């Protein structure tokens, strides 16, 4: 459904400028933005970054910096893309 009041500048709510990728992460039921070597978890019901974020991609184990895409799979795993890999 449409979200009224959009578009907004990314800097509103602590969001990163020009995010590299975005992913809805079902276990957290949150939208996650990736930018460089960090990720941001958005608060439920708004475009605000949750407290204690951004955090390092090292939390995810093995994800390359500068993710250019992310795709959830039905089995719960996630495919991450960087450039053409």
UniProtKB/TrEMBL annotation:
Pfam family for this entry, one: Hemopexin
Q: Whereabouts are the Hemopexin repeats?
A: 16-64
Residue stretches in coiled coil = none
Question: Which PROSITE patterns does the UniProt entry name for this protein?
Answer: HEMOPEXIN_2
Q: Which domain of life is it from?
A: Eukaryota
Against InterPro entries, the record matches this protein to: Hemopexin-like_dom_sf, Hemopexin-like_repeat
Protein name per Swiss-Prot or TrEMBL: Matrix metalloproteinase 28
- Species per Swiss-Prot/TrEMBL record: Macaca mulatta (Rhesus macaque)
């Amino acid at each position: 459904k449409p979200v009224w009041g959009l578009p907004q500048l990314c800097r509103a709510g602590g969001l990163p400028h020009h995010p590299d990728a975005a992913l809805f992460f079902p276990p957290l039921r949150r939208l996650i933005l990736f930018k460089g070597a960090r990720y941001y978890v958005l608060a439920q019901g708004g475009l605000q970054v949750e407290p204690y974020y951004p955090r390092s991609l090292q939390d995810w184990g093995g994800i390359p910096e500068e993710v250019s895409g992310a795709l959830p799979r039905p089995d719960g795993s996630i495919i991450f893309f960087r450039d053409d890999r």
